[in-house]
């Protein structure tokens, strides 16, 4: 893999990643960013990554967007979506990714509050960590985010015999502890996720994202200069376009996979 050195006077690209861990495409995009912006990633010295926990349900509600399975043509696209999901797992080199949790929606549909899509505690927890990350060990938000994605999309042991992911207080506390927090601090964060300030922070994140042009998750905002219009990228399949826009190296969704041929665009 060839390396491209960044000119000394070129500022880093500021990349804000608005995501919801319940979104499978947010998981795919996060996998790419973890590889490219990590310690041995090709963007490590060229991109300043900021994780921005958000709420997919809030983005869609405020913009009138609908989830794919709730659109009138969803039945006609079922075969495509099934094949597309399997192809993406291979393309993104995340073949151990699990299917959608059985309780993604409740028995009564997308608005059923018993479903994960209406359970906002996990994203409130990450929002609270984001807001106070300067008080926590470096990398806590990154670790907590990675663990949250794994909980929903990778861990078979996190699902019951019916394929449901159960978000209990113990599960959320363990996630915090595995991120590097003490048990006492972990409990404080979990106990605070239903507080008005934390709820407001998550809603404010949604409002900010919508005001800037977001309508779903993941949404990425990029800029290099303070006086330039920021660029917006939606979904997990716009990284090649992002790389082209900012003259960043691109080696496919997994830059460490040797059999990928870089695009000639």
Automatic annotation (TrEMBL):
GO terms for molecular function: glutathione peroxidase activity; glutathione transferase activity. Signal peptide: none annotated. GO terms for biological process: glutathione metabolic process. It holds the Pfam family DSBA. It comes from the Eukaryota. One of its GO terms (cellular component) is mitochondrion. Residues 15-243 form the DSBA-like thioredoxin domain. InterPro entries: DSBA-like_thioredoxin_dom (IPR001853), GST_Kappa/NadH (IPR051924), Thioredoxin-like_sf (IPR036249). This is DSBA-like thioredoxin domain-containing protein. It comes from Cymbomonas tetramitiformis.
């Amino acid at each position: 893999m060839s390396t491209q050195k960044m000119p000394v006077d070129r500022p880093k690209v500021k990349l804000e990643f608005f995501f919801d861990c319940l979104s499978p495409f947010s998981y795919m995009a996060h996998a790419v960013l973890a590889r490219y912006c990590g310690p041995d990633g090709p963007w490590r010295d060229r991109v300043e990554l900021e994780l921005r926990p958000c709420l997919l349900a809030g983005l869609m509600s405020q913009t009138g967007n609908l989830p794919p399975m709730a659109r009138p043509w969803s039945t006609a696209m079922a075969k495509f979506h099934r094949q597309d999901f399997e192809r993406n797992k291979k393309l993104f080199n995340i073949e151990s990714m699990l299917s959608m949790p059985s309780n993604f929606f409740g028995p009564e549909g997308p608005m059923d509050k018993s479903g994960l899509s209406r359970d906002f505690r996990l994203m409130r927890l990450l929002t609270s960590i984001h807001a106070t990350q300067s008080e926590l060990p470096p990398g806590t938000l990154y670790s907590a985010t990675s663990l949250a994605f794994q909980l929903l999309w990778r861990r078979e042991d996190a699902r019951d015999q019916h394929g449901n992911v159960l978000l209990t207080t113990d599960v959320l506390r363990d996630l915090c502890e595995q991120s590097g927090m003490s048990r006492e601090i972990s409990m404080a964060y979990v106990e605070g996720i239903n507080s008005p300030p934390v709820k407001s922070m998550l809603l404010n994140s949604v409002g900010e994202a919508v005001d800037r042009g977001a309508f779903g998750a993941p949404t990425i905002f990029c800029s290099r200069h303070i006086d330039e219009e920021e660029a917006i990228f939606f979904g997990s399949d716009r990284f090649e376009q992002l790389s082209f826009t900012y003259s960043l190296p691109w080696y496919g969704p997994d830059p460490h996979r040797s059999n990928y041929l870089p695009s000639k665009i």
